[in-house]
Amino acid sequence: MKRMFMFDALREATDEEMSKNSSVFVLGEDVGYYGGSYKVTKNLHSKYGDLRVLDTPIAENSFMGMAIGAAITGLRPIVEGMNMSFLLLAFNQISNNAGMLRYTSGGNFKIPIVIRGPGGVGKQLGAEHSQRLEAYFQAIPGLKIVACSTPYNAKGLLKSAIRDDNPVILFEHVLLYNLKEDLPDYEYFVPLDKAELIREGQQITILTYSRMRHHVMQSVNELVQEGYDPEVLDLISLKPIDIASIGKSLVKTHRLIIVEECMKTGGIAAEVIAQINDNWFDQLDAPIIRLSSADIPTPYNGTLEKATVIYPNQITSAVKKLVNL
Question: For residues 74 and 110, what is the distance between their CA atoms, to the nearest angstrom?
Fold first, then answer.
C-alpha cells in the first residue's frame, strides 16, 4: 500500500497508461511545463515530451475538436479542462462530435477520448467557476459520465476510462484533490457503470456522489451513534445510472434520500427519481427526499455560498424525518 493524494492518484493513472500505450496523450491549458492547475500532469512533460503532453491555447472548442479528430484516427487523448465550467465553450464538439460520431458513422469510428478536470463548488471561486456540469452533459447520447470521490476510485476510473473505446467524462471535485488514501501497489480498475456500496444498512438508503459522499458519511457516523442504520451508495456512474444497485438497496430499506451538489432542477437526482418511478416504485414506503444545491448562480460571498449547498446537519435531519414517518 502507498498513501497518496487524489491528484497524485490521477497522475499515476495517467503515467501508467501513457507508459503502456504510446497512443495515449494529454492536452489542455497549462498541462505541460506548469503541470496542470492542480498538478495532475506534473512532471509528465519532462518524461514524455511536447508531442504527448501538449500545452494548448485558451481555445476550448479548438483543442476539443483536435482531440476528437485524434481519437478518430486511433489515438487516445486525455483532455484536461482547467476548470470544467470552461468546457461549455466546447459543448458543440462534445455533444455533436464526441457523443454522436460513433453512432452517425455506423460504427466506422471509435471515439476513445477522456475529458477530465476540476469542477463543483469550491471556496469562493465565483459563479462561473463553481458550475456542476454533470446535468448539462447527462442528456447527451453516446457519452459515459463518472464522478470520482476518493483517490482509490479516481485512479481506477481514469484507467478504465482511458481504455474505453467511447467518450468518457470524468468529473473531479476541486476540493477533493488533497484527499489522502492508501492505494494498493498492484494495478486495478474501477468499472465505469457501477455504484459503490459504502455502508450496508437496513433502515434507509442514502444515494450520493463526488464531494457529497464525505458530507453523507460525516452525517452517517453521527446517525449510527444514535441507533440509526442507513445504507449508503456512491453513485459514481452518472451515465448510465446503475439503477439495478439502487433497486437492490431499496428492496431492503424501502426509503431513499438523494444527496447531490448538482442543482435540483434537472439534476442527477431528478433522473434517478424518474428511473426509480419506472422500475422500483412499488418498493417505496415513503416519498423520496432530494437534497440538492439551490437553483441560483453560486455566490462569491463565503456565507452565501455555504447556504447554497448541502451540509451534514441537513442530511441528518432528513434521515430522521424519513425514518420516523
Answer: 8
Closest CA to 159 of 183, 132, 133: 183
Write down the mean pLDDT value for the chain: 96
**The model's pTM:** 0.95
Domain ranges of the chain: 2-183, 196-323
Handedness of CA 149, 152, 154, 157 (dihedral sign): negative
The grid coordinates listed for 115 are 475529458
Domain 2-183, classified CATH 3.40.50.970, yes or no = yes
Q: What is the pLDDT of residue 325?
A: 77
C-alpha cell at 173: 471535485
Question: Which residues belong to the active site?
Answer: 60, 129
User: Each residue of 106-162: pLDDT tens digit?
Assistant: 999 999 999 999 999 988 999 888 988 999 999 999 999 999 999 999 999 999 999
| The domain over range 196-323 is classified in CATH as 3.30.465.10 | no
Q: Which helix (H) or strand (E) holds 3?
A: strand 2-5
